[in-house]
């Protein structure tokens, strides 16, 4: 049992490291040579250009304006200043809504913390349950005196906990309902105010049945001409361009090497760079590197051209899927929402994702394979989740004082030093856990890809669900049980799997201190570390030193990253879960969670404004998942309290908590019916309104030309290298933002433009290399 | 514990009563005066007219052709002879597919019975587990020697049970898959071959939002003209005609009384019948009954006319719902499958049910109320299900020998008589259970109506789901636990609710004899009683004696009844559940179940051909429910076997059974994705094909006229009494069946007409009393 002193030390360490991170960030971000690391978003938007072009040589790299260092937390109010509507314009709806998750955390937990500290803490503190138990050799710490552990068995005081649980449930549901309403209306407004985009008119058709007499393209055209005669406009088949993509990738790598050697040569004109042609350049013939790469690139270019031709001609390279475009949004909405043929596994239609959101390799998986793949992944995920627990449990048992003393008795004298002991108890379990979790998201993303989702956004959502389940089982339940296992080992191992609510309920108050340190390490120091962006910082400067010769290269060296919904959101959900579970049990945990939400809100707001560059825009399609998981956390908290109370000999409270669970489930279903369709389906009225409006304002728009090449495999577009320039040019010309080209070194936001309707749209750049079906 | 002798006696009694029922049926059905009771379907189709018109007086009532009595089971081959396609023509797809449920029972259980008797019975019989247990004072009977109870703890023989469970699972899934395929294709073929029907073009729109400036009718018209401009044709608003319906009902009752008095007067011309005007005719002024009723009817007719006018004029009598019709099936399919507006709880669209299938009172319930109602009913159903168990448990504990002896010691000498003892053990528990179940379907139907479903078919499906849950908890689980409670009371009462699989698993073999007698009482004698139709027989003759004066009255006196999906299907499902649960445990049960399925198949086939008159045609929309419940039974059987085996110290078998459960769940999900859409959604290709065909064959059909009055509240149609005549006239003129007007007294079916495409269609009769919106 950690004492108040342990927690104090852990808090001090974490606050200190958080402060160090923030200070380092404050200093680093003011240096001009870091400008592209800490403000890449503005560069990508073309609203900021390199400060290295002007002024004295030193001031290109180091900020000599010492006044700038005084307000080292100045970025915080700056980050908070941009209004939400402008934020949506600036970073997209996904990011703006993502930030709302942190806000919800504050909205939910601030009042709950108030009520629990006002009601439960005095009730807990003034009882003497722990004193009674101490007679039975149960140890406890000061923190436990604030928790439900201090209530005597069967005490009437437990009613206050039930009453507070009711208050928590209703307050949480109220906030969730309001937020769902708000987000749904934001989404609809966002969709309604969007400019014309190809995905508004396009439906992704999968599982086109094979036909001996017609090509896929003909078949698709005939099918939709017959079944949607008034609305069908055009279509694009999907090519199997995996080989081509490989070649293009190879060519790009070669170009990179060529660049490298050319820079090398330009720096040292005396000697042409050489290389060996064998494996990794370690052996083989020595050749002139520049000539060799130039000829290799020429060869590859020819191969690529040949492969392009082959794909365009070979019917086998056409996959049984197509992007079908319609004359109106109404026609597309109809096609996406209806079943086309008798067999519901053929001609599957669904809204096309944004072109940049498409995950091309998965477009050709047939239905039966999809269900089999889902089964395989479900089983694999099950084993991943449950066998992953074993190493965690072992490591954590080792990382406790008793575990280390048992495993390595010679260390006893060292770890009995008070400071080291506190350090081990405060830090090691959390760090062990963190290490385990680093490689997991990649594995989960591979699983999702194998499952066959066809857009990046759905891949991320799926991975997030899996990751949440994993965290729930392994971080939350795993820590409660495995941790408790050392204390209750004998009574535990032979229990049936169904007494889990009770067992967990008993263990929960005991683990409060563990989770407090976890929150400080993961939530406080971790979030503060996020803003420092250590990895992108190092990589940027390495690249800058080695490769960059032009402004364009410097732009490519930037790695703004993105929010990473698949890892970020489940992590936030863990805090919701901890907060809701511990609110009625150990209110001492809540202030730590509130600090986390507040800090994370500011940090991520700053990152979204200045750093991250989202890869797609799903229009907050993830919100039903977020909502659902918070409700799940609420239900888990009720069930665990039920288990805890029944071990407290307060069985008469069971019906009251069961009623609460039923009401919460009903609330979930109500919200699902009321709001979820706004995130899945597409109301015809909206489509018709936009169609009508557009027909009136732009009667002669060439929609077919607009849609013709929207959904072409990116590999057919990447042929020219000047694409990025075109994109940024388009950005500059199309953006309604005032193109001030500010040179300011601080991120003072632009004047707010609330009514603007532009949003990050995809570049419609298309070059001539696409095949004509 | 019932012995083999007890079961033999119960079997003898039940076979005897079944035979008596069948014999009585065979004799009664040959009597001409019962013709309308046993062959009403043919009268309704106009293919048979009363035999009482011709021949000698006696032969009008009694069949004197003694040869006819010889083959008293002749109806059985007759019932089996009609091919399925003709059956679909004759009775509709619902009935034909309903029969397939019994066939599936035979297909599943015949091979399973073979394999279990070939493998498990020898394995069980040759072990000696019961001998060992007998040393511990556990009693057992001969039947138990055939069951898994006879296997010793931890025996390797249990692997054979697991292997057989695998075989059972795969066989059952295979049959279910084939049947789902078959039924889905039957449904699609049925829908494709149907004649033009109003519901193919019509969508039911609910939750029309209130508008201060427009009436509901205008609002609906404008909305659909804007959002479905190319397809909208016409619409009908829904009137709140509850008061009118009451008046019409009252008038009908008056007319009946008038009839009665007129008959009374015509039989006895000397005296005009009198009546008292007060309560129930017991006091008040004496008046001439015929005159009184005539004037009352006139008054009512005026009131009805006034109410009709009021409804047509008063905007408050219009409910916020409408039947919207489209120019094409394609347009209706699109509207039914899409979301109309931003708010998914307004302008809810769904396919309109058949006009005769509409449940009018529920059309105006708003969305929020619907979800609240659902919550209320869910809670009410929970209490109904779980508190209903208490009386059953009490009755059954009383109805056992020990219970009676304890409750009424003075009866001891009587019930110790061997015959009476066997009777009590064989019969009383089942009968007690049956009595409880008689009033339940009515309660469940009221619950479903309260929940707000808008068609009779969905009401019946919902009630069936509830009834199934009820049977599962109370008949199946309730009997296993409550029954076992007498034997294991002490060990049972303090167990946690989560050990149920184990507890149930242990109890299952012990209850085999109880369920065998249950199957015989409910399944054998009950089904044989069904064909006798005692209640309709008595009511028909009572009415015939008291009221009938014309051929039309006689037709009205017929009460053919219908299949009653809401009670029938869950009862069949109980047999699936019992069969699957007991197949690996006590194979002795299976032959009884096979006899049930065979007998029920023949009886219901006969009833469907000759008696039942379905009230609606849903196109086998219930099949996903049927399929799902059989899969649930399969999963329950696997879980219970898991529990049983783990108490048999065969814990190493657990993973094998868990794999089976996972595979079964996956199978369910696969089938759901593959086939369920065929029962819910409406492929656009099919709609387009029919539209195109119809446009080519009948280019000038007046669709608007056809649809104009299709969805009018029945009370606006019932004004004229001659409707039935019109219906039957239409039947005769439209039916493609050869109108032979057969006088035969046996139900030789018509020559088979496989290719016919006519199906029971709704009467399009419309009279002039409907209000013009």
Please give a structural write-up:
The structure is a homodimer of 773-residue chains. Chain A has 773 residues and is mainly alpha-helical. Helix content of chain A is 65%, strand content 4%. The first copy, chain A, is built from 35 helices and six strands. In chain A, the strands form two sheets. The first copy, chain A, has a four-stranded antiparallel sheet. The longest helix of chain A is centred in the middle third of the chain and has 38 residues, at 456-493. The termini of chain A are far apart. The relative contact order of chain A is 0.16. Mean pLDDT of chain A is 75; it is low at 483-498 and 719-773. The A-B interface holds A 188, 226-228, 230, 333-334, 337-342, 344-345, 367, 371, 375, 378-379, 496, 498-499, 662, 666, 669-670, 673-678, 681-686, 688 and B 188, 226-228, 230, 333-334, 337-342, 344-345, 367, 371, 375, 378-379, 496, 498-499, 662, 666, 669-670, 673-678, 681-686, 688.
Task: Jot down its keywords.
homodimer, 773 residues, mainly alpha, four-stranded antiparallel β-sheet, disordered C terminus, calcium-activated cation channel activity (chains A, B), CSC1/OSCA1-like_7TM (chains A, B), membrane (chains A, B), transmembrane (chains A, B), transmembrane helix (chains A, B)
Q: Tally the helices of chain A.
A: 35
Helix share of residues of chain A? 55-70%
Please give the number of β-strands of chain A: 6
Query: What is the alpha-carbon Rg of chain A in Å?
Result: 29 Å
The low-confidence parts of chain A are 483-498, 719-773
Membrane topology (chains A, B): Multi-pass membrane protein
InterPro entries (chains A, B): Csc1-like, CSC1/OSCA1-like_7TM, CSC1/OSCA1-like_cyt, CSC1/OSCA1-like_N
Transmembrane segments (chains A, B): 6-28, 101-120, 158-177, 375-399, 419-446, 467-486, 574-604, 625-645, 651-671
Family (chains A, B): Belongs to the CSC1 (TC 1.A.17) family.
